[in-house]
Amino acid sequence: MVGELDILNEWIPEQMQPGTVFVLENAGEIGEKEDPYWAVLSCPSCGMLGLITRRQINGLIPVICGSEKCSAQFFIHESEVVVRKPF
Ligand SMILES: [Zn+2]
User: Measured between alpha carbons, how far is residue 73 from residues 2, 12, 56, 70 in Å?
Assistant: First the structure.
């Protein structure tokens, strides 16, 4: 698992390596009002792309990878990936 996120300012699909974040151009305008979608994150463990919300990018709630083959759960702390400890 990649330990640090890499923030892209431009959408370059070939550069969406594991642990890359691309902030949506319409961040905050889609999804739930309370916690809108904010960015696309390439899972730091498997590289699968998924949308993350404002609370996830601010580290308030964990990111859980959507891939069936990957069980990555982590918090984003600034630009670091903090693995969620199992309960
Ligand atoms: Zn994953």
Answer: 13, 25, 11, 9
Q: Dihedral, CA atoms, 52, 55, 60, 63, nearest 10 degrees?
A: -10
Q: What is the pLDDT of residues 36-69, one digit of tens each?
A: 999 999 999 999 999 999 999 999 999 999 999 9
Could you give phi then psi for residue 15, rounded to 5 degrees? -95, 5
What pLDDT does 86 receive? 66
**Residue 61 structure tokens:** 């709630």
- Ligand 1: distance of its center to the CA of 15 in Å? 17
Ligand 1 centroid – CA 87 distance (Å)? 19
Domain range list for the chain: 6-83
Q: What is the pTM of this model?
A: 0.91
